Amino acid sequence: MTKYISVGKILNFHGIKGEAKVGFTKNQEDFLLMLDKVYVQEGSEYKPLDVEQVRINKNFALFKFKGIDSINDLMEYKGKLLFVDENTIRENLEEDEFLIDELVGLSVFDENDKKLGFVIGVSNNGASDLLSVKTNSKHICLVPFVQAIIREVSIKDKKIVINNLEGLLE
User: How many other C-beta atoms lie within 10 A of the C-beta of residue 63?
Assistant: First the structure.
């Protein structure tokens, strides 16, 4: 079964020729510009939309879909999330990039192989991604997902090794 991942949301129309104004996560411009197909969810089904053109305008992406040529054609999609299949995202990940759902649940260890806790979420503060780590003492701490701290990520072994700087995790 194909798994779909959200890449943006149709916020409104742009102009009168069916162009969609799409909100998206920071730093995803290059990925959006290479898409040729996205999906919208209708019930339990995912309906494909062929991308005719994408351009970036300020903090939004402007999508033109094949067969959607007016505001009226686009209105049924306003407010809907845009999805791509997981394989499309995986093909475009760099070696040190991961999907959020791959990181959530991984155990966190220090460099001496002492278990410190596990990842319960991932967020972004604008400068870097942050791992929310629930420690053994039940505290939730934010760990910057940067090379100086994250030493190793092994999806296969379900673990992350960090440089546990003093005061990073309680």
Answer: 26
